[in-house]
Amino acid sequence: MPRASEAQCNTRERSEQCNTRERSEQYNAERAINPPATRTLWLVADQTSASITIAAKPDQIMAVIADFEHYPAWVDSMRSAEVLTSAAGKPKTVRMVLDHTLVKDNYVLAYDWGPRAVSWKLIEGTLLKAMDGSYVLKPNGAGTTVVYALTVDINMPMISMFKRKAEKTIIDGALKGLKKRVEG
Question: Are 69 and 95 spatial neighbours (Cβ–Cβ below 8 Å)?
């Protein structure tokens, strides 16, 4: 079948051949602007978050968050936490052993500290392939609202509903434990 000419494609009666030609030209133009080697695709796993208000100042709460050796005392599913490296007086990498009903692993997280926030990313794990999250503290009158966000992903097939359930129970347990630990 002969290719439709530009004049034929500009008439009122457009053929499928013209539409195909236009899609092909658009695809080629996009590839010229963004060649495959330079394109970036960001896939972000679903994230779960929750918040709680704690009757304390942000500095008091951050001190408890940074005290990893005591995590097993207030985080239900945490069996151990060991600071591996520190920088500027704050833990930089921490090895943890998690024994949650849905997720059990021995893993290492890398931390990034701010004045009222801390975030972390998984750098080593057996079962886990993502354990990325953050605490963000917002002064709220006499207290502080703590927002905990978490993304968990594992190296085996798991229904996303169970992943979200694991994230939710980890977050809820950590927030309640943090509140109890800070408020006494």
Answer: no
